[in-house]
Specification:
Blueprint (H helix, E strand, L loop, with lengths): L15 H8 L2 H10 L14 H7 L3 H9 L14 H6 L2
Helix pairs in contact: 1-2, 1-3, 2-4, 3-4
Amino acid sequence: MASDPSPPSPAPLGSQVHAAAVNGDRSVLLRLITVDPSLRDREDQFGRTPLMYCVLADRLDCAETLLKAGASVNKTDHSQRTALHLAAQK
């Protein structure tokens, strides 16, 4: 009998909050950061925050939600880039 295939590798996005940010799901994003405000600056395996993913995915409404909730604009990813750096590179 063949063994089961290995489970899929983890998603490249670190968490539900990152997925909500990149997908532009503002209602889920707002619910998550209301329940746990620390999620607004949660880093994934690349050091990227939800705000950075909003910028990369052109999700300005979600970026505004995060900024109003107090997300840091000064956080850097593992390549020392802020959300502003990522926006400027587009």
